[in-house]
C-alpha cells in the first residue's frame, strides 16, 4: 500500500513537470521570431566552433588519438546533453543561485510540490533547443544509423543531462552557504562545459582525476561519446552510477542548504 | 589684429579641449574606481582565464610534441602560449556597451542620455575604458602564473611595450566601432544579440582568438588579413610575441584605414538613428 502511494506520487510529480515544460515551451513560442532566432543563432554559434576544429585538424592532423570525426561526436554529445538539461531544467547554476540569494524560493515553497524539481523545471533555456538540435545532428553525421547506436545516443545524452543538472544544482546551492554564489556557480558550470569540449586525452594525472570528480567534464563529454562509439555496457553503468551519485549529492546539499534559507523581504509578483 | 584673433581662438580651442579631456577622463576614472570597488566580482568573472590557459597549454603541448620543427608559422610553443594569453586578454577584457546601448534604445532611456552634456558615443567609450583597464589587468594577471609555468618568460623588451599598447588601443577602438554599430541596430531590429554573437564568432575563428590566423588555410588567411577582425585580437597578440617595426607599421596602418571605414559607418548610423528617435512625453 505504501509502495503504491509512493509510485502514485512519482506519477503525479512527473505529470506536473511535464505540464511545466509544455507551458514553458508555449510561453517561449508566443514570441515566434525571437524563439526561432535564438535557436538558429545557437546552431550557427556551435557550427562556427566546429569550424575551428576543422581548420585545426586540417592543419595538424590527429592529436592524442582524436581526429575531426571524434571531435564532432564529442561536441555533439556535450551539446545534446547540455541541450536536454537546459531545455528541461533551465533554473540551475546561476539562476538557482540568484533565486536562493534573493529569497525568491518563497514563491515555490507554498506549493504542495517537490521543491527542487519545481524550481529547476520552472524555466526553459530557449537557445538550448538549438544546442539539442545541433548536438543530435552532429552525432547523426558521424555515427552509423543502427538502432543500438541511436539508442546509445539517447541514453548517453539523458545521462549526461542528469549529471549536468545535478552539477548545476550543486553549484547553485552554494548560495545557501555563501550568500550569493551567482558568479561562482556560473564559473563552475562554464568551466565544466569548456573542459568537456576538449579531447580528454589531453589531460592526465591530477587534472584527469579532477575532471572525473570535482569538475566531471569527462562524464558529460568523452565517456558518453565513447559509449556511443563502442556500445560498452561498463561505460553505461559508470554513467548511471555517476548520475545517481551526483543526484544524491545534489539533493543532500540542497536539503541541507534549505535549512539555512531565509526569506527575502522583497515583494515579488509572479504572473 | 588678425594674429591676436588667431591667438585668442587658439587659446579658446585649447581650453575647450582641456575641458573635454578632463570631462571624459573623469568618466573613465569614475568607472575605474567603480570596478575597483567591486574587484572581487570582477575577479570572479575573470577566473575563467586560468582554466582556458591550462587547456590551451595542454592542447598545444600535444600539437608541438608531434612536430619535429620547434616552430609552426614562426611561433614556438612558449610563443603560442603567450600569444593566446594576450588574445584572451583582448577578448575577455572587452567592454560590452552594445548591450547597454540596445537596452537604452529599446526602453527609450536613450532620450535622457542624449541630452546630457557629453557626446553619447564618447561617453560609452571612455566609460568602457575604465572597465576594460581593470578587466584586462585581471585577466592578464590571473593567466600569468599558468603561462609562466608552461612557457617561461616572454621574449619581449620593455621599449616594445608602448607601440604594442598603441595597437591595443587601436584594437579597442575598432571593437568599439563595431559593437556600437551593433548596439544602435536596436533602432531597426529588436534583437541585436545575434549580430553580436556572429561578430564574436568571426573574431574567434578568423580574428585569431582560438589560434593565430597564420595557421588557417592560405585562402582563408588571405581573407582574414583583409577583414578588420584580426586587428582586434591577432594584431596585439602577434606583436607581443614577435615584435617588429614592419609588422607594427602594417597593423597600425590597417587599423587606421579600418577605423576610418567603421567610424564613418558608425557616424552615419548614429546621425540617422538620432533622427529616427521619437520621444513621447508624459
Detailed description of the structure:
The complex is a heterodimer of chains A (271) and B (282). In chain A, 76% of the residues lie in helices and 0% in strands. Chain A has helices spanning 2-29, 32-60, 68-88, 93-101, 106-109, 115-120, 127-142, 147-178, 182-196, 206-212, 217-220, 222-230, 233-258. In chain A, helix 3 runs antiparallel to helix 7 (127-142) and helix 3 crosses helix 12. The mean pLDDT of chain A is 90. The longest helix of chain B is centred in the first third of the chain and has 36 residues, at 2-37. The radius of gyration of chain B is 21 Å and the shape is globular. The A-B interface holds A 33-34, 37-38, 41, 44-45, 48-49, 51-52, 55-56, 58-61, 63-64, 183-184, 187, 190-191, 194-195, 198, 201-203, 207 and B 41, 44-45, 47-48, 51-52, 54-55, 58-59, 62-63, 66, 190-191, 193-194, 197-198, 201, 204-205, 210-211, 215-217, 220.
Number of helical segments with 4 or more residues of chain A: 13
Largest interface (CB < 8 Å): A-B, 31 and 29 residues
The radius of gyration over CA of chain B amounts to: 21 Å
User: What does the radius of gyration of chain A come to?
Assistant: 19 Å
Separation of termini of chain B?
53 Å
How many β-strands of chain B, per DSSP? 0
Tell me the β content of chain A. Answer: under 5%
Amino acid at each position: 500500500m505504501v509502495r503504491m502511494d509512493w509510485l502514485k506520487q512519482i506519477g503525479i510529480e512527473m505529470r506536473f513537470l511535464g505540464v511545466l515544460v509544455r507551458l514553458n515551451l508555449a510561453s517561449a513560442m508566443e514570441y515566434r521570431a525571437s524563439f526561432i532566432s535564438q535557436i538558429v543563432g545557437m546552431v550557427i554559434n556551435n557550427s562556427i566552433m566546429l569550424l575551428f576544429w576543422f581548420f585545426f585538424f586540417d592543419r595538424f592532423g590527429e592529436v592524442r588519438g582524436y581526429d575531426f570525426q571524434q571531435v564532432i561526436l564529442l561536441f555533439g554529445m556535450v551539446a545534446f546533453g547540455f541541450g536536454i538539461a537546459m531545455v528541461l531544467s533551465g533554473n540551475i547554476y546561476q539562476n538557482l543561485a540568484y533565486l536562493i540569494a534573493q529569497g525568491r524560493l518563497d514563491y515555490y515553497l507554498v506549493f504542495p510540490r517537490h521543491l527542487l524539481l519545481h524550481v529547476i523545471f520552472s524555466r526553459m533555456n530557449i537557445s538550448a533547443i538549438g544546442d539539442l538540435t545541433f548536438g543530435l545532428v552532429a552525432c547523426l553525421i558521424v555515427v552509423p544509423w543502427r538502432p543500438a547506436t541511436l539508442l546509445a545516443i539517447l541514453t548517453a545524452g539523458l545521462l549526461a543531462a542528469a549529471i549536468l543538472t545535478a552539477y548545476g544544482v550543486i553549484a547553485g546551492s552554494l548560495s545557501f552557504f555563501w550568500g550569493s554564489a551567482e558568479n561562482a556557480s556560473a564559473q563552475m558550470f562554464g568551466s565544466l562545459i569548456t573542459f568537456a569540449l576538449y579531447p580528454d586525452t589531453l589531460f592526465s594525472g591530477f587534472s584527469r582525476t579532477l575532471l572525473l570528480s570535482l569538475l566531471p567534464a569527462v562524464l558529460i563529454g568523452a565517456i558518453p561519446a565513447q559509449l556511443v562509439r563502442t556500445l560498452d555496457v561498463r561505460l553505461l553503468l559508470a554513467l548511471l552510477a555517476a548520475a545517481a551519485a551526483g543526484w544524491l549529492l545534489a539533493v543532500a546539499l540542497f536539503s541541507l542548504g534549505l535549512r539555512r534559507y531565509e526569506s527575502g523581504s522583497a515583494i515579488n509578483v509572479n504572473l | 589684429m588678425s594674429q591676436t584673433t588667431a591667438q585668442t581662438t587658439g587659446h579658446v580651442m585649447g581650453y575647450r579641449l582641456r575641458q573635454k579631456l578632463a570631462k571624459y577622463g573623469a568618466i573613465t576614472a569614475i568607472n575605474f574606481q567603480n570596478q575597483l570597488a567591486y574587484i572581487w566580482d570582477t575577479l570572479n568573472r575573470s577566473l575563467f582565464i586560468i582554466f582556458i590557459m591550462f587547456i590551451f597549454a595542454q592542447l598545444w603541448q600535444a600539437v608541438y610534441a608531434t612536430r619535429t620543427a620547434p616552430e609552426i608559422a614562426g611561433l614556438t610553443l612558449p610563443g603560442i602560449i603567450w600569444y593566446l594569453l594576450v588574445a584572451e586578454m583582448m577578448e575577455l577584457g572587452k567592454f560590452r556597451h552594445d548591450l547597454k546601448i540596445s537596452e537604452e534604445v529599446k526602453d527609450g532611456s536613450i532620450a535622457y542620455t542624449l541630452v546630457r552634456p557629453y557626446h553619447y558615443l564618447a561617453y560609452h567609450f571612455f566609460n568602457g575604458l575604465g572597465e576594460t583597464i581593470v578587466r584586462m589587468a585581471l585577466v592578464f594577471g590571473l593567466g600569468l602564473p599558468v603561462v609562466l609555468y608552461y612557457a617561461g618568460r616572454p621574449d619581449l623588451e620593455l621599449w616594445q611595450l608602448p607601440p604594442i599598447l598603441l595597437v591595443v588601443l587601436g584594437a579597442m577602438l575598432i571593437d568599439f566601432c563595431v559593437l556600437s554599430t551593433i548596439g544602435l541596430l536596436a533602432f531597426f531590429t529588436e534583437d541585436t544579440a545575434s549580430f553580436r554573437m556572429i561578430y564574436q564568432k568571426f573574431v574567434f575563428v578568423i580574428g585569431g582568438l582560438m589560434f593565430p590566423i597564420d595557421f588557417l588555410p592560405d585562402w582563408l588567411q588571405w581573407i582574414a588579413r583583409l577583414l578588420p577582425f584580426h586587428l582586434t585580437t591577432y594584431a596585439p597578440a602577434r606583436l607581443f610575441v614577435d615584435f617588429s617595426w614592419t609588422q607594427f607599421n602594417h597593423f597600425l596602418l590597417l587599423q587606421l584605414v579600418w577605423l576610418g571605414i567603421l567610424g564613418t559607418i558608425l557616424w552615419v548610423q548614429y546621425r540617422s538613428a538620432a533622427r529616427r528617435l521619437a520621444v513621447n512625453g508624459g
